[in-house]
Amino acid sequence: MQVKVQSGDIASFAAGAIVVNLFEGVTSPAGGTGAVDKALGGAISSLIAAGDIRGKQGEFTMIHSLNKLPAPRVVVAGLGKSAGFSIDRIRHLSGDLARYLRHQRVKSAGVLAHGAGIGGLPAEDCADAITEGTLLGLYTFNRHKSKDEDGELDSLTIVEHDAAKLPALERGIERGRILAEATNFCRDLANEPANYLTPTEMGRQAEAMAKDTGLESEIYGPGWMAEKGMGGLLGVAAGSVQEPRFIVLRYNGGGNAKPIALIGKGITFDTGGISIKPAENMGEMKGDMAGGASVIAAMGAIARLKPAVNVIGIVPATENMPSGNATRPGDVLKTMLGKTIEVINTDAEGRLVLADGLAYAREQGATALVDVATLTGAISVTLGNVAYGAMGNDAPLMERVKRAADAAGEKVWELPMWDEYFDLIKSDVADMKNSGGRPAGSITAAMLLREFAEDTPWVHLDIAGVDTYEREKGIIVKGASGIPVRTLVQFILQSAGEPASVK
To answer: What 3 state SS string does 318-366 have?
Structure first.
């Protein structure tokens, strides 16, 4: 799928369709939309007057040009109310528009730079949002289907009459492509069935991506984990015939500076172990490695964008299976840091592997830690599928993560980390237990992780409510979401002092 920019007049652009836009309440279109309206003999104005075009957000109206324009079709895209118009609205509009054009079997289209004209938004950010929205909205996972029934939108051209804006638009397209492609790579990993994406294969895919982008990679097996004393990870892996992998990716853009660490949970399938999950919807647990996938994908985008900072990506990857070798409720595991954890519930396994991931990141001298995991069902009860939860031990780092999420157009909500919550995971036989029960489930899981971050600035992102969706809307598609890849990349860009997209 090509996204490109061209100088010219949208009314003169030859493609399968051209797309113009309209704010809600506008009765006399201007700019590029006005030029197309004039070429169509006032057809758009007539449809506005008749109430058939209202400019409402997500409204698309197709008009056949009947040889009055080089393009046979004109689509009028509703931008919604001009008040509060944002970059994020452009993203979601572009996702919906791309699917609409594909459904109409349009192969090529020209669009205005939504928001960069009367909307008053920076051209570069608008082009970024159009590109992100288009590529994210068109994503499908069809690799295991014998026949793909969808048509394809092959090219989208941003047509801009002001040639001075072209360099900014081109920069935005390139950044948007990198962010979208990384997110779609994360989606590919998270959508892959567990019989295809084993921990070994996850390591291979990370290694191949690292080779393509210039990252350093290290993929370790169980012998190395045992030498490191990673009892949390090995305890979860004990029940599976699939060997675990500890994936390390390194981006070196900051000279001799200590790295920032991104740590992702990589449970390639989660049965719950001995504390087995109900059969209903267990197939969705192939995506329990979405946190790890987001870290791997973000590292690839970081390598392509080349910020002046050092970053280490860490993914402890394993299955969580029941067997005669599996860790049992009541067992005690000794982690890399030497701290012990009583296993109350083997389905609370993500925090066990992340404990060793955090300890390794600190051993590598990381100055800041951000971990990502589909950690608790409790976060879905708290925040639904609208936002992911954030917990941490450092207010400035938390604010940086929030700003990055804002730039990415992703919603995050901070939950409290008061010391009283640790009482719920105190153990009579070990330093702590891996589950505090139902009360404050997301917070108590984070409290355990805090013990392994210790005094290093740390933020934990619980994405269990937003990692998959059941229907399409804007940049969201059915299946894996790829959240929070773009937040992680924006966080690293901001950490390097580089500008991020505006909301």
So the answer is: EEECCCCCCCCCCCEEECCCCCEEECCCCCCCHHHHHHHHHHHHHHCCC
